Amino acid sequence: MHRLLLVFVAAAGACVFVLPRMDASPAVGPCVAPLQWEGRWVVYDHSTGRNSRAAVSYDALNQRIRVLQQHKKHTPCQRFFEYIYLYQSMVMFQIDQKTKECSKIALTEAWDPFDVPDNSTFEDQYFIGGPGDSIEVQEWSDRKPARKHETWVGVYTMKDCYPVQETYTRNSSVTTSTRFFSLELGISDPNVFTPPSTCQSARPERMVDLEC
């Protein structure tokens, strides 16, 4: 599970059609997610209805994440950023993709990996897709008997424990849903976690998304 998605301004809704398993039963225990991968995600912010697409490099071994915002069409006044989260140093760099302006922001929450915590509650096991073209997944949450509602729900593949979707709720007005896709094991270029030289004179405040 990962709280970063509440910090990373978001949005992108998508429906997943599933074929339920009528014989679904509690798993032996949570799977072990990959520690290093690259791919893409779409984050949907339920409070704003906005989508945010990005290329992602994830390195749990060194507790760092690089997020490169992507855009498919020209959006007037919209700025696109690269984010480098370095949790061992508890700092986040925000870099304007066009101007290379840089902000350095202190992180206030501890590292929270994309995985299934050992104390998670098994919810379901099913296939996403249809006959002959499907993938089997498990759904986990942080739901506990003494609490009515869960604040985190994660869907992970059965075979290799890749993240498929995570939904995280902080309160009744802040919820994000994230879909992961095109994941590949490993980090092709470790230098993506190194801030550019412009960050040597980084500003202390976060840059805004719109410039006009």
TrEMBL record:
Tagged with keyword Signal: yes
Compartments in which it is found: Lysosome lumen
UniProt-listed GO biological process terms: cell-matrix adhesion
GO CC annotations, alphabetized: extracellular region; lysosomal lumen
Residues making up the signal peptide according to the UniProt record: 1-20
GO molecular function ontology, one term from the record: calcium ion binding
Alphabetical UniProt keywords: Signal
Segments traversing the membrane: none
PANTHER family: MAMMALIAN EPENDYMIN-RELATED PROTEIN 1
Family: Belongs to the ependymin family.
Function: Binds anionic lipids and gangliosides at acidic pH.
Protein name, per record: Mammalian ependymin-related protein 1
